[in-house]
C-alpha cells in the first residue's frame, strides 16, 4: 500500500550559486558521505530530501542529516534513514522507501514513494 508520494525539482545553477554564497549550507543539508559530489548530484540529493519530507507528510521535525542518499549496487540510489526520519516513517507504517533521481537540462529531480 502506498502511504505517501513526494516529488521535487531543483534548478542546479541556482542551487549551486546559493551554496557558493553560503558554503556552510553543505554541512547543514548533507551528511559527510553526500558532500563533495558534483553540483548536479548534490542538487538531486537536495531534491530527494525535499521529496522524502513530502512523502512523509512534511512534518517540520525532520532533520536533514537523518536521511542519506546512498548509491547501491549498479549505482541505484536508496535511503539510509535514522533518528527523526526513521521515527516518522515508523509512525506512518512505512516498510520501504523507493527513490528515483534524475538531472538533465539544468534541473535535478527526485521522486519518492513511501510504501507500507
From TrEMBL:
<keyword id="KW-0444">Lipid biosynthesis</keyword>
<keyword id="KW-0443">Lipid metabolism</keyword>
<keyword id="KW-0479">Metal-binding</keyword>
<keyword id="KW-0276">Fatty acid metabolism</keyword>
<keyword id="KW-0275">Fatty acid biosynthesis</keyword>
<comment type="function">
    <text>Transfers the 4'-phosphopantetheine moiety from coenzyme A to a Ser of acyl-carrier-protein.</text>
</comment>
<dbReference type="InterPro" id="IPR002582">
    <property type="entry name" value="ACPS"/>
</dbReference>
<feature type="domain" description="4'-phosphopantetheinyl transferase">
    <location>
        <begin position="4"/>
        <end position="94"/>
    </location>
</feature>
<dbReference type="InterPro" id="IPR037143">
    <property type="entry name" value="4-PPantetheinyl_Trfase_dom_sf"/>
</dbReference>
<keyword id="KW-0808">Transferase</keyword>
<keyword id="KW-0963">Cytoplasm</keyword>
<dbReference type="InterPro" id="IPR008278">
    <property type="entry name" value="4-PPantetheinyl_Trfase_dom"/>
</dbReference>
<comment type="similarity">
    <text>Belongs to the P-Pant transferase superfamily. AcpS family.</text>
</comment>
<feature type="binding site">
    <location>
        <position position="50"/>
    </location>
    <ligand>
        <name>Mg(2+)</name>
    </ligand>
</feature>
<protein>
    <recommendedName>
        <fullName>Holo-[acyl-carrier-protein] synthase</fullName>
        <ecNumber>2.7.8.7</ecNumber>
    </recommendedName>
</protein>
<dbReference type="Pfam" id="PF01648">
    <property type="entry name" value="ACPS"/>
</dbReference>
<dbReference type="InterPro" id="IPR004568">
    <property type="entry name" value="Ppantetheine-prot_Trfase_dom"/>
</dbReference>
<keyword id="KW-0460">Magnesium</keyword>
<feature type="binding site">
    <location>
        <position position="8"/>
    </location>
    <ligand>
        <name>Mg(2+)</name>
    </ligand>
</feature>
